[in-house]
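Students often ask why we bother encoding 3D structure as a string. The short answer is that it lets us treat folding as translation between two languages. Here is a chain of 276 residues written in the first language.
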Amino acid sequence: MGGPVIRFRGKLVLITGASAGIGRATALRFCSEGAKVLALARSAERLERLRAECADTARLVAVVADVTDGPAMAAQAAAILREHGVPDIVVANAGIGLDARFEETTDEALRALFEVNVFGVYRTVRPFLPGMVRRGSGRILFVSSVVGKRGTPHYSGYAASKFALHGMAGALRAELRGTGVTVGVVCPSTTRTGFQEHALRHGPGQRRVRVASHSAESVARAIVRMAGSRRREMVLGLEGKLLVWTNAAAPGFLDWLLARLLVRREPQENPLSERR
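And here it is in the second language, the structure alphabet:
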């Protein structure tokens, strides 16, 4: 009997937001499949704990940086290129959420959101593109959200940041056509990671409306499948697929349904959610 299939033996994979949630699960998954993982996150302590969990600790390299810090990201990219070479796969996963009604969304919160979810992706991918193109191969994956396909109440800012990834991916695919470098987008629905509340409010004093959710491990498996393919996009979960399908077939009905289920009428404070 043979051992487990090692699909990514010898591959170099960079993952941002790797110390928790989806990023952590993805790093461990790639390690288990033979890849050398460059795990980038802000917390050296969390990254060290992650490295200890990897079956082969030599396969995981901690890269301490904040995707909102341009100079630090540039310095780490230069060090990666110098010490490890051009990654075969880049997973831009670091993200932050914001639960706020449109009129409650402040400029400060919106800027913080875009610094991580949009500018952070540019800072992650941009330094490695020239080397990928010269080599003639590479796989870039953006971790978006089903909310990047259809905005939902109280997530206008978050949806805008995730919609941006789809526009970015489309433009980048055209720029990279014929180079051997491909771009994919993974769109999870609610994920059980502590990234955000999974119980969405249904008006003042009402019961919470619970939606189906993925585990971080199931999203990680999808990311790894995407990494081994040339697929452009993957929407995860039945509820995510239904949201996208209903939006295409009957957007007015979906507006009504989301308003009935999810709109909270009373204003309240809505701080940025925990970063992954």
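Translate back mentally: Residues 148 and 163 are 4 Å apart (CA to CA). Keep this in mind for the problem set.
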